[in-house]
């Protein structure tokens, strides 16, 4: 598990909204609540820890972006995100301005 987390740490990056748009179009972006650790969520998804992932979904701590969120992001082209690719998903957390 530690090796996986180390690999994910290397893939953790900052992304601009423009970079995420093609991934939004492919419906693979997952918004992670700031109360969760992005690496922990990535590790759970990569390790097929279904119970953890289902719990976060049921608690609305991870979800596809809403239409309102996408509209909001479209109005702020400088919006930044912490981003982690866990194939086929792109996990994101909004960064404070």
Automatic annotation (TrEMBL):
Domain of life: Bacteria
Pfam families referenced in this protein's UniProt entry, alphabetically: DUF2288
Name of the protein in its database record: DUF2288 domain-containing protein
